[in-house]
Amino acid sequence: MKTLAIILLIAFATAATPPPPPAARTAAYLEAIRRDGDPTRLTEFLDAMPKGGDLHHHLSGAVYAESYINYAAEDGDCFDATFTIVPPPCDPAQGRSPATRAQTDYGYRNLTIDALSARNFAPTTGDTSILVHFFKTFFKFDLVVNKHWGEELAEVVHRAAIQHEIYLETILGVDKGAAIELGSKLAWNDNFDTMRAALDAAGMPHVVAQARRDLDAGERDMRSILHCEGPTPDPGCGVTLRYQHFVLRAFPKAQAFAQMQAGFEIADADPRVVSINPVQPQEDYIPLKDFELQLRMFAYFHKLYPKIHLSMHAGELFLGVAPPEDMHDVAHIRDTIDVGHAERIGHGLDVLSEPDPQGLLAEMARKHILVEDPIFIHELIGPGVVGGDVLPIYLAAHVPVSLATDDEGGARSDLTQTFRRAVEGYHISYPTLKTMVRDSLQHAFVSGADLWAGPEAFTAMTGACADQPAADVPALAACRKFLATSEKATLEWREEAAFARFESRFKM
């Protein structure tokens, strides 16, 4: 009788214990397959997982080499002896093969793909560094990049959609280099007001207008390729797409200033352009020499256009690529935030080399400065960086982080592979992955109020949608009305509904 009572008591207690919520079951499933080292189930899990937005994504670096081969062939271009795309005439006897050869000659095709990306990199005489090799690839396909925006955009939004991304900010030269040409015709003037007036007089309004027309044409071509207005649109049509205008920071100061002016004026006129971002290797001569000057330029334009958001490359140095004093003597990350007014930074590799790194990390957490972390590419071209990637450092300091691809074409990767490195290489749990996905949308540069009650506070939604179960359409009319006023909240709600569907797959 006593035994029966114990059994009944256990049965009653078991029956009274509610099952774990879907998020907890999902977290347990991921931990089990990670612990078992099951690559098949891990890839399936991460491939299907909602991934929010990719906030650090270079359009030209995201396009795969195979596409550049097709563009060159379509345009009648050639590959020279270094596999750089050059205009016709082609003459194999002079080392200028028709680009079509890379479509039909298997051996030549694979040599071309390797030259246009980091695939199969092996040091050779004159090509000893994967970092240098990687950056050189951008010059090799430069001839065709600005001629095929529609095809490039169609490729990247399709890839984003099939990986369950719903938002993409891609970095490109929205003016197609016109501001550089404009700046090259003017002498530098230390008075920024005078410099800006000179550029406007030289034709900057035309550059801005043409950039907007080029974006219109690129998006129109993209939507045509993806059949977005047809009965069976490509899933890429559902990705919300925004642009960051890059500033090539290795150019002389007049041209750097001109690029910034073009970017801010384009962004002020066109809501699709949401940020201005300095690019090119930070360890190069001019980016190091003019670092503080360029930040003052950003500060100047930020004062003129305070509503324009800023995400900026920062802290890309590491031992081996730069002397220690270049990392320790200048507060690259702190100054990018405090002087340049960056709301997000990309990379942030040398955070521990900054003056007072603990204070900097605390400031970033307090100000909610998000770090866009492309783990895969950090490991590919920056071996030995802080024992791997800086992701654990920022997470431990409660700095918001989102995972990003950076240059998925050049690195031969995608966002799913980046998530996989986070799990396998850094033992990132499902709750942390989910937080980073939510961070990617909360820190996205889209308009409207936030769905959540506070920054990185993903436990309570704002009043109108509080306690509403995640569904494709909110049950409460007040929540639906609120979402109709906010693009950001709509994206965040859409992601919560996707998480609910995803997590419902995992049972006890």
What is the element layout, followed by pairings?
Elements lengths: L1 H15 L5 H15 L2 H10 L3 E7 H4 L2 H10 L3 E2 L5 E2 L10 E2 L2 H4 L1 H10 L14 H11 L1 H4 L3 H14 L2 E8 L5 H7 L7 H11 L1 H22 L14 E9 L4 H17 L3 E7 L5 H5 L1 H14 L6 E4 L9 H5 L3 H7 L5 E4 L9 H11 L2 E4 L1 H7 L9 H6 L4 E3 L4 H4 L3 H12 L3 H13 L9 E3 L2 E5 L15 H8 L2 H17 L5
Parallel strand pairs: 1-5, 5-6, 6-7, 8-9, 9-10, 10-11
Antiparallel strand pairs: 2-3, 2-4, 12-13
Helix pairs in contact: 3-23, 10-13, 11-14, 13-14, 14-16
Q: Determine Rg (CA atoms, Å).
A: 25 Å
The fraction of residues in strands falls at: 5-15%
Q: Can you identify the CATH superfamily of the domain at 145-442? A: Metal-dependent hydrolases
**Low-confidence segments:** 1-14
In the CATH scheme, the class of the domain at 145-442 would be Alpha Beta
Q: What is the number of E strands?
A: 13
Strand order of the largest sheet: 1-5-6-7
Morphology call:
globular
Distance between the termini: 32 Å
Helical residue percent band:
40-55%
Mean pLDDT: 93
The chain-level structural class is alpha/beta
User: Main β-sheet: number of strands, strand sense, barrel status?
Assistant: 4 strands, parallel
CATH architecture of the domain at 145-442: Alpha-Beta Barrel
Number of helices: 26
User: And the CATH topology of the domain at 145-442?
Assistant: TIM Barrel
